[in-house]
Design brief:
The protein is about 40% helix and about 15% strand. It is of the alpha/beta class and about 220 residues long. The protein has a single domain, classed as TIM Barrel (Alpha-Beta Barrel), CATH 3.20.20.70. Strands 1-2-3-4-5-6-7-8 form an eight-stranded parallel beta barrel, surrounded by six helices. Strand 6, helix 6 and strand 7 form a beta-alpha-beta unit. Helix 1 packs parallel to helix 2, helix 1 crosses helix 8 and helix 5 packs parallel to helix 6. The longest helix is centred in the N-terminal third of the chain and has 17 residues. GO terms for molecular function: thiamine-phosphate diphosphorylase activity.
């Protein structure tokens, strides 16, 4: 599967912190019904066996909705289940090595905070970049805020799509208008909401307004 920039519009990153009695599958399906266009499974607490079982379940669900499904960090599990791709950070496996392991048809996303990191990731075979945190976020306590001018410079420096991430909400996403992003990656703005489907639908509309004509 090749990475289409339209698929990156509303990029949902899972987080078990807000299950509140629901299953992750239920949450992801609500998000998909609300218009999420891309799903990244991120797990920090499950063991490999549990992670693998969950990955297979969410993969099947995303296939039903024809939405790309990728794994955060864990290249081995992505390879084992034939996920659509993987997203890696600067401290994880380099994009070129990921490509060797997964093959030419898989989507590879790389986190980037600087123009230099962005250019290097593109050169090494990344299909898209995740840039942030563009606003302060509670999801990653160690994430420093990325200046919006730098975000714009990153978008201008590469030919691959750039997705903004970090602290994005329906209320602040339009502040990113004109930066050149192709979409926004969110966690709590969707999964921490009581009505996930409605939250996703509203957010998608605001992101469409933000990226219109820029990407």
């Amino acid at each position: 599967m090749k990475c289409d920039k339209k698929d990156l519009l509303l990029y949902a990153v899972t987080d078990r912190a807000w299950l509140n009695g629901r299953t992750l599958r239920e949450q992801v399906e609500s998000a998909l019904k609300g218009g999420v266009t891309f799903v990244q499974l991120r797990e920090k607490t499950l063991n490999e066996e549990q992670f693998l079982a969950e990955a297979k379940e969410i993969q099947k669900l995303c296939a039903q909705y024809h939405v790309p499904f990728i794994i955060n960090d864990n290249v081995d599990i992505a390879a084992e289940i034939g996920a659509d791709g993987v997203h890696v950070g600067q401290s994880d496996m380099e994009a070129g090595e990921v490509r060797k392991k997964l093959g030419s048809d898989k989507i590879i996303g790389v986190s980037a905070r600087t123009v230099e990191q962005a250019i290097a990731a593109e050169r090494n075979g990344a299909d898209y970049l995740g840039a942030g945190a563009v606003f302060s976020t509670g999801t990653k306590s160690d994430a420093r805020e990325l200046d919006h001018a730098t975000l714009k410079e990153i978008c201008a420096a590469v030919h691959i799509p750039v997705v903004a991430i970090g602290g994005i909400t329906a209320e602040n996403v339009t502040e990113l208008k004109g930066t050149g992003i192709c979409g926004a990656a969110v966690v709590s703005a969707v999964f921490a909401q009581d009505d996930i489907e409605a939250a996703a639908r509203m957010l998608k509309g605001r992101i469409e307004e933000t990226v219109r004509g820029d990407c």
